Amino acid sequence: MSTREVSLPVASQPSADAFVALAQRAESLGYDRAWLPETWGRDVVTMLATIAARTDEIGIGPSIMPVYSRSPALIAQTAATLQEVSQGRFRLGLGPSGPLVIENWHGVPFVRPLRYTRETIEIVTRILSGEEVTYNGELFDLSGFRLRCDSPEPRPRIDAAGMAPKSVELAGRFADGWHALMLTPDGFRDRLDDLQRGAELGGRDPDAVRTTLSLTCCALDDGERARKLVRQHIVFYVGSMGTFYRDSLARQGYEETAHEIYDRWQNGDREGAMNAMSDDLLDQLAVAGTPSAARDRIETFAALDGVDALSVSFPRAGKRDDIDATLDTLAPE
Predict the structure, then answer these.
(1) What is the rounded distance in angstroms from the CA atom of residue 184 to the CA atom of residue 280?
(2) Under DSSP, is residue 174 helix (H, G, I), strand (E, B) or coil?
(3) Torsion of the alpha carbons at 278, 281, 285 and 286, rounded to the nearest 10
C-alpha cells in the first residue's frame, strides 16, 4: 500500500505563512510528507525549517533541491541541520533541474548532469555518515574535513529525481529513492525497469529503493474546470520548460503529441497546444475531475506495482480554494 504525500504549490502562495498553513492542513488530513520544490521563488531551506518548527509529525523534504545551486558539502550541512530541527522528519530530494533554470537563473553551466548528481549524492552520503571525507571525483575533490556537529540520527535518506532511463538508473544505483514525474502507468513501468537495473548494478536490493510518483491533481465540483487547470499545467511544462518533458512524453509513446504541443507553444499558439492533449492522455498523466472521479483515478495509480508513495501536486494556476478542495478529497483514508 502506497503512502499519500503532498507537493506544496510553489507558484500560487502569497506568503511564507501560506506555505506553513498548507503543510499544517496536510498534516491534519494525514498526509505522510510535505515536499517543496525549489525554482526561482522562496528558498526551500528557510521554508522547510519554518514548516518543521510549526508542525509536529509530517515529514518534510525538497523535491527537488538542484545540485548546481549549492556545493555538495553545503547540501550535506543543510540536510543534517534540517534533520535536527525536524527531529528526524527530513528526507532529501536531489536532481539537476534543467538548463533554463540553472543557466538563466543561477548563471551556472548545465554540464554533465548525471555525473554532477552522482558525485553530489556520493559526497552527501559520506558527510552525513560522520566520517572524515576524502573524495576524488571527476568534478569534486574533498579532503580533511568532517561535520563539525554530530552526524544526524537517523541519517537522512536521499532521493534522486529522474525521467530519462539513465537518470532513473542512477537513482537506483546510488540513491535511497527515486522521484518520478509526469509518467503514464506504462511509462512508470518502463522506468521501473531502469531503476531495478541500477540497483542491481550497485549491488543493492531493488525493493529497498523507495519510489515516489508525483501526480498533478485537481478535484473540484466543477470537474471541467479541474481538467482545464491540469491540462494547462501539463501543456505549459511540455511546451515551455526546455525539452525534458517533451522528450519524456515522446519516450512514452506520444511522440507526435509531444512535439505538436511543444511546437505550437513555441510558436505562440497556446490554444492549439492545449487542444493537442487528448482527454485520454490527460488521464494517463494526472488526476483531474470531480471529487468522485479523482478519487477513483488516484487509486489506479496507487495500485501500480512499485509505487511506494503518491505525491499529490497541484496545477500552477490553481487558487487556494482549489488546492484545499483537492487536498481534502484526496487525503489518505
Answers:
(1) 11
(2) helix
(3) 50
Which residues contact residue 327 at a Cβ distance below 8 angstroms, ignoring those fewer than 6 apart?
6, 22, 25, 26, 29, 31, 312
User: Of 256, 264, 304, 302, nearest to 281 (Cα)?
Assistant: 256
- Count of alpha carbons within 13 Å of 36, Cβ hemisphere only? 29
Question: What digits encode the pLDDT tens for the residues 99-156?
Answer: 999 999 999 999 999 999 999 999 999 999 999 999 999 999 999 999 999 999 999 9
- Confidence at residue 9, expressed as pLDDT on a 0 to 100 scale: 87
Helix axes 44-54, 72-85, angle to 10 degrees: 10
The C-alpha atoms of residue 51 and residue 16 are separated, in whole angstroms, by 9
SS3 312: strand
pLDDT attached to residue 10: 72
**pLDDT, the chain, mean:** 96
259-289 residue pLDDT tens: 999 999 999 999 999 999 999 999 999 999 9
Cell numbers describing residue 251: 519516450
pLDDT grade for 12, boundaries at 50, 70 and 90: low
Query: Which domains does the chain carry?
Result: 3-224+287-329 (3.20.20.30), 225-286 (no CATH)
Would you say 218 and 322 are in contact if contact means Cβ atoms under 8 Å apart? Answer: yes
Which of 115, 112, 120 minimizes the C-alpha distance to 94? 120
Label each residue of 253-311 as H, E or C: HHHHHHHHHHHHHHCCCHHHHHHCCCHHHHHHHCEEECHHHHHHHHHHHHCCCCCCEEE
Which residues, in sequence order, are bridge partners of residue 60? 34, 90
Cell readout for 289 is 475531475
3-class state of residue 22 by DSSP = helix
Tell me the per-residue pLDDT of 148-191, one tens digit each, with 9 for 90 and over.
999 999 999 999 999 999 999 999 999 999 999 999 999 999 99
